[in-house]
Amino acid sequence: MKNKTALLLAMVLFLSTFQVNLVFAGEKNIVLGAIEETDINADNLESALENIKSMELTIEDAVKIAKENSREMWKIDDGLKEIKESRKNAKDQKETVETMISKSLTEGFTPEEQQYMNNYVTALLSKNNYYITYADLKTKEIEKNREVINVGIEIETKSLYYQVLVTEKTIEINEGNLNKAKEQLRVINLKFNNGTATRAEVLNGEMAVQRAQTELDSSIDDLEMAKLNLLNKLDLPFDMELTLTDKNLEYVPISDIDLKAVIEKAKTDRPEILTANNDLELQKIETHAYTAYYTSNLRQHKSAVEKLKDAELNVPKVYKNVELDVRKTYLNLVKAERAILNMDKTVEIAKEAARINKLLYDNGMTTSLDVLEADTNLAQAEISRYQLLVSYNINKMMFDNCNLIGSK
Fold it and tell me: How many angstroms separate the CA atoms of 116 and 114, rounded?
């Protein structure tokens, strides 16, 4: 039933003019309620979902569908169940060990108990709460991973959504450029028929039209691929026609950023930090047990001491790596903002160049080739500007969430 969660959400979006009441019972997601003005009822809703061929999709709805359909999230839930069961077993094991140790002082071990106690280091680890502590710390790590996965799904889904938007915008720009090239070719042909243009200018005009058509065809193919990637992420049928409703992708300037505060927050929240500190705490318990049982000249004793040193050295190293990652993420954001600001100026220059070249051509002061090249340059600048806008927004999402997720 989980595999159909995305389709259930899609149906809710598609039937926005109808009233649908959803009641989620455990993992079965039972659909109840009335759907007005249709023949669809709760019993045949799922079969109706399979016949949906198109849907409108907001960016938030896309994220919601992706999260609901994430196998990683299901694995997190399964992992939590397993670790809770492990903790229960660890608690029982500790009680057993403590009972046997107390009993041995007065009654001795039974053969079964003696066999269990032969691995005394394991028993000592259990007595010192190693396995209970392990379960508790791993539970925290799994819960932290849930946060990270949620953020990762949101960033990836929005990035795929943006890629569809940028290809749609590219098609729009290329269509405009093609229309300009066709109009310019029409003018050139008129002048050629009047004897005021050369055959070379006609050929240049025809080449410009062909080049613009090729760019348009390529962008249409890119759109199909971008949509397939988004559909795959949402686990929706590949033949479903998506209409993205959140068209406005805006540039929001970087506000004043306290980089030091961001770094400190990352050092508190990042899962690498939690894991390193947890590993150190567990290693302290393990080393204590091994050094208490094995003498200092034995390999097991030396190995345990060395592992503790490694765990201790790893903590400051992880802190430094997290700071490095945050600083790099910040620089990537600054770089992306600088690129889009520079491209804004480039677009302005390209627009003015296209206007002037058209004016000069109309007055016989330049060639049609200059006009065609200026129009092409403008189209390329506008496409590049939109691509940089997408890149900036992705980098901004990465920085806004760098306290949880890394840039690697």
Answer: 5
Cα–Cα–Cα angle for 130, 132, 133, rounded to 5 degrees: 65
- Domain encompassing residue 195: 72-236+243-255+324-400
Q: Which residue in 324, 328, 336 sits closest to 254, CA to CA?
A: 336
373 inside domain:
yes
Pairwise CA distance, residues 281 & 240, whole Å: 51
Give the pairing of strands 31-32 and 21-22.
Answer: antiparallel
Number of domains observed in the structure of the chain: 2
Does residue 46 share a domain with residue 9? yes
Residue-by-residue DSSP string for 95-126: HHHHHHHHHHTTT---HHHHHHHTSHHHHHHH
| Long-range residue pairs from 216-219, CB within 8 A, at least 24 positions apart, any chain | 216/171, 216/174, 216/175, 216/177, 216/178, 219/167, 219/170, 219/171, 219/174
**pTM confidence score:** 0.79
SS3 assignment, position 35: coil
Does 349 map to a domain?
yes
In this structure, how many other beta carbons lie within 10 angstroms of the beta carbon of residue 274? 18
Residue 265: both structure tokens together:
């927050």
Q: Do 9 and 46 form a contact (C-beta atoms < 8 A)?
A: no
What CATH number has the domain bearing residue 152?
Answer: 1.20.1600.10
Which helix (H) or strand (E) is 223 found in, with range? helix 199-234
**Residues in contact with 101: Cβ distance below 8 Å, sequence separation at least 6, in sequence order:** 123, 127
Note down pLDDT in tens along the chain; length 408 residues.
444 444 444 444 443 333 333 323 333 332 333 333 344 444 454 455 456 788 899 999 999 999 988 888 778 888 888 888 888 888 877 777 777 666 655 555 566 655 555 567 887 888 888 889 988 999 899 889 889 999 999 999 999 999 999 999 999 999 999 999 999 999 999 999 999 999 999 999 999 999 999 999 999 999 999 999 999 999 999 999 999 999 888 898 988 899 999 999 999 999 999 999 999 999 999 999 999 889 999 999 999 999 999 999 999 999 999 999 999 999 999 999 999 999 999 999 999 999 999 999 989 899 999 999 999 999 999 999 999 999 999 999 999 999 998 765
